[in-house]
Write a structure and sequence with these properties.
Thrombin, subunit H; 2 domains; 21% helix; QueA-like; six-stranded antiparallel β-barrel
């Protein structure tokens, strides 16, 4: 399956650089994948598109300040600025990370983030680096100087470019389990009031936890998408959620995932603690009947998952319509509901 089939063009000015003042104020494109139709609506009207007995599944992962900006100090070369994105903790003060620019960081480099906070590159393999951090209290220091791990298309080049809203709004109102290096962005549309209204309509809300990491945001580099390798993301579907979902499936009620991460957790083996599931067209969904999701970048694993649910051609047609109607794109942008 050719990766080029999942490309599309969009004007860069449609990339949302900041969230709207209200969480539930985004536009929402409503798609029927059975009828191949769409209409335009808003997130505040989401309860009207849900039925009594539906199960809405949310990812309650919590984003941590995973982005660090520091200086490489090497006696053999000039000081240079690098960006480190923390991914997975391997051991105490030892992390698997992404480094940018990757080519300008070397094994053994010392990266200084603050007067009492530095790290050494102890491994550099397959696009990742391992860093050993030197700091008295890693968690405390990270909370003080770490930055929200906004994606690179949201332009925050320096620590001074971040606004207070980034710490609060790049986080869902129901986030609980800390561990994500990126937000499950469909979750950002929910306000406490919207959640209450949804429950008042007789919709059951359940939670999974999938800590967003490389599988969610790394690009596909293979021309044949079936050759793309996933690295694994930790997740859990709690027993209470398993019971709620299984009962709904038995009774023929809909299970609607909020975000591709919740969808991947539900479609994975619930007995495992890490999932490498890669969903692309041809996949037969076992659990979810619908999906609320943001608009995704071209040729991404996220776009392939959406295409698997609603059909590639229909999804790309709906994206073209959204772009024509000037929907806001990507993490801080608008969304679509697929049922």
């Amino acid at each position: 399956m050719d990766l080029k089939l999942f490309q599309y063009k969009y004007p860069s000015e449609l990339i949302a650089q900041h969230p709207l003042p209200e969480r539930d104020a985004s536009r929402m494109m409503v798609l029927s994948h059975a009828e191949k139709t769409w209409r335009h609506d808003g997130v505040k009207n989401l309860p009207q598109h849900l039925k009594e007995g539906d199960v809405l599944v949310l990812n309650n992962t919590r984003v941590f300040p995973a982005r660090l900006i520091g200086d490489v100090r090497c006696p053999m070369s000039a000081e240079r600025k690098v960006e480190i994105l923390l991914l997975n903790e391997i051991a105490a003060n030892r992390w698997k990370c992404l480094a940018k620019p990757f080519k300008k960081i070397s094994l053994g480099d010392e990266v200084h983030f603050a007067a009492d906070f530095s790290g050494t590159v102890t491994d550099k393999t397959d696009g990742f680096v391992t860093m050993e951090f030197h700091v008295e209290n890693f968690e405390k220091s990270l909370e003080q100087i770490g930055l929200p791990p906004l994606p690179p298309y949201i332009k925050r080049k320096t620590a001074g470019d971040y606004s207070p809203e980034d710490k609060t709004r790049y986080q869902s109102v129901f986030a609980q389990q800390k561990g994500s290096a990126a937000a499950p962005t469909a979750s950002l549309h929910f306000s406490p009031e919207l959640l209450k209204e949804i429950q008042n309509r007789g919709v059951k809300i359940a939670y999974v936890t999938l800590h967003v990491s490389t599988d969610t945001f790394l690009p596909i580099r293979e021309d044949d998408v079936t050759q793309h390798k996933m690295h694994g993301e930790s997740f859990v579907v709690p027993p209470e959620t398993q019971e709620i979902v299984q009962k709904a499936k038995t009774e023929g009620r809909r299970v609607i995932a909020v975000g591709t991460t919740a969808a991947r957790a539900l479609e994975s083996d619930w007995n495992q603690t890490s999932t490498e599931i890669f969903i692309y067209p041809g996949y037969h969904f076992k659990i979810i009947d619908g999906l609320l999701t943001n608009f995704h970048q071209p040729s991404s694993t996220l776009l392939l998952l959406v295409s698997a649910l609603a059909g590639r051609e229909f999804v790309l047609q709906s994206y073209a319509e959204a772009i024509k109607e000037r929907y806001r794109l990507f993490s801080y942008g608008d969304c679509m509901l697929i049922t």
